[in-house]
Amino acid sequence: MFIKVCGLSTPDDVAAAVAGGADALGFVFADSPRQVTPERARALCGSLGRPVIRVAVMLHPSAVEWARVRDVFEPDWLQTDAEDFATLGRVDCETLPVYRNAGLSAGRLPGRILFEGAQSGHGERADWQGAARVAARTRVILAGGLDCDNVVEAIEAVRPWGVDVSSGVERTRGVKDPRKIREFIARVRAAEREQAHVH
C-alpha cells in the first residue's frame, strides 16, 4: 500500500513521515495554511536518509508558478487537478492528476490518480463508493478526510492502491502531529498485513 503524507512544513513532520515508512511526501504550493515556498520544501528534503517520492502539490498553477517549483524544488511528481495538465503541457516529471468526486466519467483514466473530495485540505471525505469503482479500473490513491480512526475502514471499502493523509494527522489546522503521522502509517501497514493474510 502506497502511503503519502501531505502538507508537511517542518523538519519534525518530515522526519516522522520518513521514519514511519511513508512512500511519498507532499509539499503544498497552493494557498493553504500548509503552504511552503519551493526553497523551504527543498531544504526540508535536504537529508531524507532514504529514497522517498517528493510531490509538489499545486492547484491550477500557471506555467510560471510551475516552472519555479520545478526548477527550485525539483519534485519527483506534480499533483494538481487533471485538467491543469492540458494547460501546462510537458511538466518534466511524473504526474499525479487529481480527480474529485464528481469529475469521473466512464472514459479512459491515467494509470495513477489521486481521488478526493470536492475541496482539498479541508478534511472532506471523498465518495468511497465512487472511489471503489475507479479503484477497480486504475491505481487510485485515496485522499480526503482520512485519519487514524477511519483509514482501515476506507482501505476495506475502496481497495485503493494507496492512501494520502494531511489534515487527519494534525494537532491544529496546518500543524502536523508527528505521533499521529506515525500511528496513521502503522495502521495502514497493519491493515495491509491483514489483507495479505486473508488472501
Describe it:
There is one protein chain. This protein is an alpha/beta fold. Helices cover 35% and strands 23% of the residues.
SSE inventory with pairings:
Blueprint: E1 2-6, H1 11-20, E2 24-28, H2 38-44, E3 53-57, H3 63-73, E4 77-81, H4 84-88, E5 94-100, E6 112-116, H5 128-135, E7 139-142, H6 151-158, E8 162-165, E9 170-172, E10 175-176, H7 178-198
Parallel strand pairs: 1-2, 1-8, 2-3, 3-4, 4-5, 5-6, 6-7, 7-8
Antiparallel strand pairs: 9-10
Short description:
Helix content is 35%, strand content 23%. A hairpin with a 2-residue loop joins strand 9 and strand 10 (175-176).
Q: Can you give keywords for this protein?
A:
199 residues, alpha/beta, eight-stranded parallel barrel, two-stranded antiparallel sheet, 23% strand
Individual helix count: 7
- List the helices and strands in order: EHEHEHEHEEHEHEEEH
Quick one: how many beta strands?
10
Report the principal-axis shape. globular
Unreliable residue runs: none
The first-to-last residue Cα distance is: 15 Å
Lateral strand order in the biggest sheet: 1-2-3-4-5-6-7-8
Strand content: 15-25%
